[in-house]
Design a protein that fits this description.
This protein has 29 helices and five strands. The chain has 527 residues and is mostly helical. A hairpin with a 2-residue loop joins strand 1 and strand 2. This is PUM-HD domain-containing protein.
Length: 527
């Protein structure tokens, strides 16, 4: 509000009515129409350095030429704001708000040169001046250090984005562009951690929960800066808070680094402490950060005793973990790291409940991981149960992804058995949002003979025209066009085109039928 009043007052002063001569600057009367803030005008009245001139009827250039902005008897430091240097009299003498300080103005009167070659040297430059408090001189632009932590360039300790370069500096940045961010060095106080011998009991856990200091700890562990005694000290401190730190968003990374730095005896001890409470171990496995930490443990484990400890703890909760959004990620590293003999007992429960797991959102992902990394014997047990329940899984929201994944594996005997299980139900699956995807996959991934069986069953159905105009079935017909095009015998492909021409008017009137017409046109052009 004050700024708007100030601007309005300037308009009255510099652009007054030309019919009134010697109109004074309307700051002497706080009730003037141009101002609504009495404190503002009062401050201007009390400032003895401000001299107000009358303005006669003349042009704006003439009025500016009459101003002597350097006519100030007592030099005063003027404090700038985010909108530029403050006008004279806006702040009391020797006031300072912690932002920018401009240099003192000369006490003698000087006439401002308006020639084209004039280079201004006063605060009119709208420049930011840096002062050396010892020598009271202006720091040249080339020697200025743009430090975000400089109190002369910050407000309330925060870095300012209003870094105004000099008008005469040809290498300046844009007005609102901050200087490049200077990240703290590793040996700076930003990452400083006192020696471990100076830390009290519980301090290491506190440090581990702080992002920056935890990062410094990790760097020391990575660079092998810590001695064996210091690593043992950290181990003794964190082992009693293991579950709490493993699920912490920052401390879990320190536990991962520590597990790699300690010896095998300490790793075994840490694993025993981890599984001592089955409930807390389960909570760690189903936590986002805890699951990542255990995955790291699995990658580092290298002796048989440690493998047995971890796998024996995972076996009772394997089915529950397979259905958990975080826990199902543990199966892939287990199958990659451990042999099939070691994971056999872990997979037994998954195989027995694979159908129940397949219809779960996270379980279908876990099942695909098991099929990818398990050996042929374990995969065979999975495939037998999936094929036996192919129709049920194909109509399920998540189970259909498992059936599609099995078809994509490219095993002819499995594909043949799945098509045999689905035979007689392909038309009903075409009406299903999830089953239609399985039907399309059967035509794309199977051999020509099996693909032809699927297409013929759909075309021979009395209500095949409903499939053409259905919102999901039309995608099946489009896939049938492209799949039959690659067959050596093009009889089925030509039969589909004949049916399209026969029911052209019906397909043209249906929004889903028009998709089939478009696909048929593209298929003919690509021949």
């Amino acid at each position: 509000m004050e700024r708007n009043s100030y601007t309005q007052g300037l308009q009255i002063a510099f652009m007054g009515d030309p019919t009134e001569e010697n109109q004074e600057f309307p700051f002497n009367d706080s009730s003037s129409a141009g101002f609504s803030n009495p404190n503002f005008s009062q401050g201007l009245q009390s400032h003895h350095d401000v001299r107000v001139f009358g303005f006669q009827q003349s042009s704006l250039d003439d009025r500016f030429s009459q101003l002597n902005l350097n006519d100030i008897e007592n030099p005063t430091r003027i404090v700038g704001s985010d909108f530029g240097p403050a006008p004279i009299g806006l702040f009391p003498e020797n006031s300072f708000n912690g932002r920018h300080v401009l240099r003192s103005l000369p006490s003698q009167n000087m006439v401002v040169d308006r020639s084209p070659n004039y280079s201004p040297s006063t605060f009119i430059e709208h420049n930011v001046f840096d002062f050396d408090t010892n020598t009271q001189r202006r720091t040249p632009p080339s020697e200025r250090s743009y430090n975000l932590c400089d109190p002369m360039r910050s407000v309330n300790g925060l870095g300012s984005t209003m870094m105004r370069p000099s008008m005469h500096d040809h290498h300046h940045q844009p007005l609102h562009s901050p200087p490049p961010r200077q990240l703290p060095r590793e040996n700076s106080s930003y990452y400083y951690i006192p020696p471990l011998t100076e830390l009290k009991a519980g301090d290491i856990c506190t440090v581990a929960k702080d992002r920056d200091r935890c990062l410094a700890f990790q760097k020391k562990l990575d660079n092998e800066v810590l001695t064996r005694g210091e690593i043992d000290m950290i181990f003794m401190e964190v082992k009693d808070h293991l579950h709490e730190l493993m699920v912490h968003r920052f401390a879990n990374y320190l536990i991962q680094k520590l597990f790699k730095a300690i010896n095998n005896e300490q790793r075994t001890q840490l694993l025993l402490l981890l599984i001592r409470s089955h409930q807390r171990f389960f909570q760690v496995c189903t936590n986002l950060y805890g699951s990542r930490t255990i995955q790291k443990f699995i990658e580092i484990i290298n002796i048989q005793e440690q493998k047995c400890i971890l796998l024996s703890a995972l076996k009772p909760i394997a089915i529950t973990l397979a259905k958990d959004s975080n826990g199902h990620h543990l199966f892939e590293p287990c199958l990659k790291k451990f042999s099939s003999e070691e994971t056999m007992h872990l997979m037994d429960g998954i195989i027995q409940h694979c159908v129940d797991i397949a219809i779960n959102k996270s379980g279908c992902c876990a099942l695909q991981q098991c099929l990818t990394h398990a050996n042929d014997e374990v995969s065979g047990h999975f495939l037998v149960r999936i094929v036996a329940n192919a129709l049920f899984l194909s109509e399920d929201k998540y189970g259909n992804y498992v059936v599609q994944f099995v078809l994509q594996m490219g095993l002819p005997w499995v594909t043949s058995m799945i098509i045999g299980q689905l035979q007689g139900s392909f038309v009903s699956l075409c009406y299903s949002k999830y089953g239609s995807n399985v039907v399309e996959k059967c035509m794309k991934e199977s051999e020509e003979q099996l693909s032809a069986r699927v297409i013929i069953e759909i075309l021979n159905d009395p209500d095949y025209l409903k499939v053409f105009g259905h919102d999901y079935g039309n995608f099946v017909i489009q896939s049938a066009l492209w799949a039959s095009k690659g067959h050596a015998n093009l009889g089925i492909h030509n039969a589909i085109h004949c049916l399209i021409r026969k029911h052209y008017s019906f397909l043209q009137s249906s929004p889903f039928g028009r998709r089939i017409l478009s696909a048929a046109s593209k298929c003919r052009r690509s021949t």
